[in-house]
Amino acid sequence: MTTLVVVALLGFAGGILAGLFGVGGGVLFVPTLALGLGLTQLHAEATSLLAILPAAAAGTWRQHRYGNVRWRPAVVIGVGAIAGVQAGVWVAHALPEETLRRLFGLLMLIIAAQVAVRAWRRP
Description:
By secondary structure, the protein is an all-alpha fold.
């Protein structure tokens, strides 16, 4: 029962991040699933992909109501992402678990550095 509460809170927090910043799945779900709940890196990434679908659908619906969704670029990005996901899954299965985890950590560090640099730049 405790695990279900943690997972529900994780979903809630991921939803807040998704609605607020447009992120949440990989940034929050993968580390928590892998480190906190003991899933392998590969299982955490796959679970995160499925878990973000309801949050993405709800966020898209709400943002659409505000007139913020640009459908054409979203569809083009989405179609391109299908091929990218297929390639990424193939590479993820080919890599050792530890390498995959380190690459994910490196990606999070790069993203954090990029956000920090942009936040501290003068307009």
